[in-house]
Amino acid sequence: MGSRRVRGAALPVVTILVCLAVWQAVCMAFDIDVYRLPAPSDIAVQLYKDAAVLGMHAQTTFGLALVGLGLGTVVGIAVAVLLHIVPPLKTALSPLLVLSQNVPLIALGPLLIIWFGFGTTPKLILLVLVCFFPIALSILVGLGQAEPHLREYLGMIGVSRWERLRRLEFPASLTYLFSGLRIAATYVVSSAIVAEWLGAGANRGIGFYLKLKFSGFQQAAVFASIVWIVVMSLLFFYLVVWAERLVIRWRPRSEPEWKEAVP
C-alpha cells in the first residue's frame, strides 16, 4: 500500500519535471526571447526576486477569495434551503439561477463597479455570484436524497418541517455540499484575479500585479504570478477536502480493507 501511494505521488511530479525540462530545452535551443516565452529558469529567478512582493499581493488575493468563498457558501446554502422548502419558488427561480451563470465576468465586473463603486464590495459580489451556484445546486440535489422511508416516518410522528430539515435532510446533503464546495474552490481564486484585474483603483492583489507586469511586457513576472495562482487554487481545493474529511466521519471507505492488503 505504501509503495502504491509513493508511485501515485511520484508519477505527476516526474511528469511535471519532464515537461519543465522540455520547455527549458526548447527555449535554449531556439534562443526564444524572454518577452515572448520565458524559460522555467527565468520564471524561477523572477519568483525569487519578487518573493516578498508576490507574497504581499497573494495575501490580499487569498483573503479576498476566502471571504468570497465563505459568503458564497452561506448564500448558496440559504438559497438551496429556501428553494427546497418552497417548491413553487424553485420552479420560478431556477431559470434565473442558470441565467446568472451565463453572464461573462468580464462584462459583469464593470457593471458592478458602476453600481457599487470602487473597493471590495463589487469584488465580493462577483465572487459570491461565482461560488454560490455550484454550492446551491449541489445541496439542492442532496436535500432531495434523504431516505424516503425516514422522511415519511418523521412526518407520521408529527416532526415539524424545520426539524425534519435539520435532523434528516441537511445531514444527508453534506456530501453533496462538499462536492459543490470543491467546484467553487477550484474557481474562486481565478475569479478573484479577474475581479482584481477589473477593479480600477485597486493597488494590491495578484490580479493587480499580473495586470501591471503584463502591461510592461514582463512575461517572466506574468508566469511567476500564474505559479502563485495555481498554488493558491490547489490550496483552496485541498482545504475543502480536509474540511470534508473532518466533518463527514461516517462515510464508508472508498475501498474495502482487504483490497489494500493486495499488492
Automatic annotation (TrEMBL):
Its main location: membrane. It comes from the Bacteria. The chain crosses the membrane at residues 62-84, 96-118, 124-143, 174-200, 220-243. The keyword Cell membrane applies. PROSITE patterns: ABC_TM1 (PS50928). Residues 58-240 form the ABC transmembrane type-1 domain. It is a multi-pass membrane protein. Gene3D superfamilies: MetI-like. InterPro entries: MetI-like (IPR000515), MetI-like_sf (IPR035906). It is found in: Cell membrane. It holds the Pfam family BPD_transp_1. Keywords: Cell membrane, Membrane, Transmembrane, Transmembrane helix, Transport. Belongs to the binding-protein-dependent transport system permease family. This is ABC transporter permease. It comes from Cohnella hongkongensis.
